[in-house]
Amino acid sequence: MSILDKFSLAGKVAIVTGASTGLGQGMCYGLAEAGANVVGVDYVDMPETKKNVEAMGKKFHGIKMDLIHASQEDLVNLVAEAVKVMGHVDILVNNAGIIKRQDALEFSEQNWDDVMAINSRTVFFLSQAAANQFVKQQTGGKIISVASMLSYQGGIRVPSYTASKSAVKGITMAMANEWAKYNINVNAIAPGYMATNNTQQLRDDESRAGQILERIPANRWGLPSDMMGTVVFLASEASSYINGFTIAVDGGWLAR
């Protein structure tokens, strides 16, 4: 097998959460272009993602689910539905997440619980459900979670987001420790400041947006397309000896 062949995802099936827009949508396109069929998960319908994945000649199946309130059983059923429709599952991308901005002195219990629920609890239990399916299939598998710059830094006015994304980095290492023996690779991607819905409020603030841009060596905000190469790499055989690591895709932000 040539090195380029090792990047191919032909015949693979990927579950991607938060697939309707932004980084999740971009990663769906990258995975499909590399050969994977895609099961997209979101709390809304995903007609645009479906249309564009199918235009690449790949299958797309959408599952509509509120991942903030999803139970462990719901997540097991999600994986079961993906297997029923596609025949098997090989890749999980935990991308769905939310952010709540409020001063730490006034931060509400609801803002804490909602963010922690989708950004960390769902990441773990959906990974658990996928890993159990990989073990059942005896095929190994790839689990890729979306971390953040705030997996490394404290941030301002986003305490639950920082806690949840620090948890993503930590549980990525913990799951990798236990599941590598099953040929399951568990890794994460930490995006820098990306032009998505989550950062709209920041980008609308001229002063704050200018401060952020000044610190990015690449001198631009990231785009969903910037995630494609990294997610394909981590989903492919080319990354078979990478376990428990969080890769920054940040235009050099952390190096500054």
Explain the overall architecture:
- By secondary structure, the protein is of the alpha/beta class.
- Helices cover 44% and strands 15% of the residues.
- α6 links the parallel β5 and β6 (184-191).
- α2 (22-33) packs across α9, α4 packs across α5 (109-137) and α5 (109-137) packs parallel to α6.
- The N and C termini lie far apart (39 Å).
- Proportion of beta-strand residues: 5-15%
What structural category arises from helix and sheet content?
alpha/beta
Give the low-pLDDT segments. Answer: none
Number of helices: 9
Give a count of the beta strands, DSSP E runs of length 2 or more.
Answer: 7
Portion of residues in helices?
A: 40-55%
Radius of gyration using CA atoms only: 17 Å
Label the overall shape: globular
* Biggest sheet statistics: 7 strands, parallel
In terms of topology, how is this protein built?
Layout: H1 3-6, E1 13-17, H2 22-33, E2 37-42, H3 47-55, E3 60-64, H4 72-86, E4 91-94, H5 109-137, E5 141-146, H6 159-179, E6 184-191, H7 200-204, H8 206-215, H9 228-235, E7 246-249
Helix pairs in contact: 2-9, 4-5, 5-6
Provide a brief overview of the structure.
With 256 residues, this protein is of the alpha/beta class.
Key terms for this structure?
256 residues, alpha/beta, seven-stranded parallel sheet, 7 strands
